[in-house]
Design a protein that fits this description.
alpha/beta, TIM Barrel, 20 strands, elongated, binds xanthosine-5'-monophosphate
Length: 486
């Protein structure tokens, strides 16, 4: 690293925003750039996340984002039951290990097995005994030709007893090799004689080779979480159940640099098994505190999310006079991460208006970016497409807006007990079609920016030189002196 971010944007003198800075062109040696990112043990083919907002990320968006190689963080402006359902749907969306395996008792009749397969639309069943131990496999090909035998016969007389199986914790590649070498379609996972899952050849074929997946091949699942510890046993129990489906929790609070939130989240991290991204914060001091004084579980604390008041639907800064624009916050926290723990990932959240803002965030130290604004108008975001004056639109609302607060689930995102002042707005954004198109524009802007800056990958981008733009320069950056309005 040639320069530190503090010197890069002189952030002690100026609270800069994206439009205040430009990346200087670097020496380009390749057009081949790698935009993949790492956050804790997770790898992403694109360094982009969708915001945990109720007009941006529910399961449809989360599934599509993970399939495309990024991450959609599910919102929490709903009951724990609905959150659980969303997480289950993300995890079940595409999996090479089926956990819910269809079985048949060894003493069942062939006719029962036949009906079970027809009802479930599948071609085979795993045969188990009364103790649920695997005894064989029964497929459609094992059904006897004679109708009489099929009606009277028992599964145990027609099943294949020698089951080719595999142990748990198998990799995708190992499973593929066994399936191809043995020319079978289905591979039960067996541990000490008991069925633990099933792998099928069909599910192993990668339709989305860049998808963000866990080690079992299931899509990664991320969920926003309140900074409060749930009070009732019922709430604690369901949160624990949600934990089984979540890979990363994102603490969902406008300003996480608060003693009470930090204490509660420390407790939550001990209670839950999943990893945590903490935030939002906006200064070097806050990051220093989280990294050195807060005593969070070191293994589960994998990232920090930054930015306050710069989101397109935010009104925190005008209502309270407090804020930390995303590029400023990213630069500050990147410095603290470099000073104290470079393993921690950094997510720049909110305020992105154009694809060109992405390379700027990476140039001051971000590992990934998060946006609601780019994605609220997608087909995959929740809500209906409306038409206003002939234009297709969708609703996009801040989680601190009057409209989002009516549900009461996200009141603790802001100052506790605050009743009247909304800290966000609700409005329309243009309908922009499918997520894949938006992601394509963003990744193209990012890649081209990296090429101009002479960077090969995101880590390299942190070495890009940036400078502050004068007020006149800001006007010149956009198309100007033309008849049209831009
Ligand atoms: P963009 O610019 O993508 O920003 O619209 C999305 C981020 O803004 C945060 N957020 C809010 N901040 N009041 C705020 O001050 C709100 O009502 C609000 N809702 C969301 C959040 O961090 C999100 O990712």
């Amino acid at each position: 690293m040639t320069d530190n971010f503090r010197r890069k944007i002189h952030y002690n003198d100026l609270i800069a925003t994206f439009d205040d800075v430009l990346i200087l062109p670097g020496y380009t040696q390749t057009y081949d750039v790698d935009i993949s990112a790492q956050l804790g043990k997770y790898e992403f083919n694109i360094p982009i996340m969708t915001a945990a907002m109720d007009t941006v990320t529910e399961e449809e968006m989360a599934i599509q984002m993970a399939l495309l190689g990024g991450l959609g963080v599910l919102h929490r402006n709903c009951s724990y039951e609905k959150q659980l359902e969303m997480c289950k749907n993300v995890k079940r969306a595409r999996s090479f290990i089926i956990r819910d395996v269809a079985t048949i008792d060894i003493n069942a009749r062939v006719s029962t097995a036949k009906h079970k397969m027809e009802d479930a639309g599948i071609s085979g069943l795993v045969v188990v005994d009364a103790k649920n131990r695997v005894c064989g496999i029964f497929t459609k090909r094992d059904i006897p030709y004679s109708e009489e035998e099929a009606r009277k016969g028992k599964v145990k007389d027609y099943m294949t007893e020698d089951v080719i199986s595999i142990e748990p914790n198998v990799s995708r590649q190992e499973a593929l090799e066994v399936l191809y070498n043995s020319r079978i379609e289905k591979l039960p996972i067996i541990e000490d004689g008991y069925l633990r899952g099933l792998i099928t050849k069909k599910d192993l074929k990668p339709e989305f080779p860049h998808a963000s997946i866990d080690k079992e091949g299931r899509l990664l699942c991320a969920l926003a979480i309140s900074p409060k510890y749930p009070e009732t046993t019922a709430a604690q129990n369901i949160l624990k159940e949600i934990d089984d489906y979540v890979d990363i929790f994102f603490t969902d609070v406008a300003d996480f640099y608060k003693e009470r939130d930090i204490q509660n989240v420390r407790k939550l991290m001990n209670f839950l098994d999943s990893d945590f991204v903490l935030g939002n914060i906006g200064t070097y001091e806050a990051a220093e505190h989280l990294l050195t004084k807060a005593d969070f579980n070191e293994e589960k604390f994998i990232g920090i999310k930054v930015g306050m008041g710069s989101g397109s639907i935010c009104s925190t800064s005008i209502q309270t006079g407090v804020g930390a624009p995303t590029i400023f916050a990213t630069a500050q926290v990147a410095d603290a991460i470099r000073d104290y723990n470079s393993e921690i990932g950094l997510i720049a959240d909110g305020g992105f208006k154009n694809p060109g803002d992405l390379p700027k965030a990476f140039s001051v130290g971000a590992d990934m970016i998060m946006s609601g604004h780019f994605f609220a108008g997608c087909t995959e975001s929740p809500g209906y497409i409306d038409t206003i004056q002939g234009r297709k639109v969708k609703v996009y609302r801040g989680m601190g807006s009057k409209e989002a607060r009516t549900t009461n689930y996200v009141l603790d995102r802001y100052v506790e007990g605050a009743k009247t002042l909304p800290e966000g707005v609700s409005d329309y954004v243009p309908y922009v079609g499918e997520l894949s198109g938006v992601i394509e524009s963003l990744t193209e802007g990012l890649s081209n920016g990296m090429i101009y800056a002479g960077a090969h990958n995101i880590e390299d981008m942190k070495n890009a030189k940036i400078g502050l733009v004068s007020a006149v320069g800001m006007m010149e950056q956009k198309p100007h002196d033309l008849m049209g309005k831009y």
